[in-house]
Each structure stands twice: as C-alpha cells, then as structure tokens.
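WARN no homologs supplied; continuing
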Amino acid sequence: MKFNDSEINHRMKKEIYIEQDKTIRNLQNEFNTIYPFLKIEFFYEPHITGKGTAKNKMINNEIKLMQVRRTIEPGKIRIGKNTTVSEIEGNFERRFGLYVQVFRKSGNVWLETSATDNWTLEQQNEEGKSLAEHWKIESENTQDHDVY
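OK structure emitted
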C-alpha cells in the first residue's frame, strides 16, 4: 500500500519528548520531523501575543534544557491535527516553563507566525510547503530569521 506525503504525516507519531538532558536542537529536530516547513525557537522570555521577540532573546540551540530551567519533569507535548500555534507555544510554557515561538519557512527566510498564531500547525506547514514550491526552494538557511 502506498501513501502520499499528507497520509504519511498523519500516521507519524506526533509527540515531542521533553527531558532535562535534551538540547534545544534535539527538540527542534523532533518538531521539524513532524512539520518540515516549520521550526521552533526557544527564548529567554515570553512574547506578547501578536508580536515577535527580539533575536537577542533567542536561546542557543546547543544548550541543554537543564541549563534553561533547573528542574524539568520529563513529559511530552502532544500535537493533534487541530493544534494551533498559540496552543503549542502555551503548552511549552505552562507545562515546562519554556518560551517557544513557531516559525514558518517563507522563501529564503523563516518568519515568526505571531500574526497567524490562531492557525493550526498543519495550516502553517502547508503554507510553508506551498511557498517553497512556489519559490522552488532547494536548500534552507536555518539561521536567517525575520525577528525584531
């Protein structure tokens, strides 16, 4: 039996495991496996709804979670089909005290989704995929952000 990309994506396990020994990069990779046209970035402080966060508040992705938060009880973030950007960002903050923002691929840059936090992650990912196909993006620059 053959599955198209969308069916494969829906059949994948949609959970991100949170443990103190993990690096931010580990979590970013888990998220990106589920949503290849999205990424999450971690910040030292929360962002205001509808607004972005300054790039200088972004946490280096080689840092382990225990360096950001002294105590993190292991757990997981579950991502459902209808999970919105604001819900996943809120779950990271409420459950683990981690400040996360979702970014969407747009051409050669990553845009904060702060203006569309009410969209589902699926919608955001599809928009990123559509833009990549339109711009025929072959490689990404994970360091290029549109942040304040």
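Residues 18 and 75 are 5 Å apart (CA to CA).
OK
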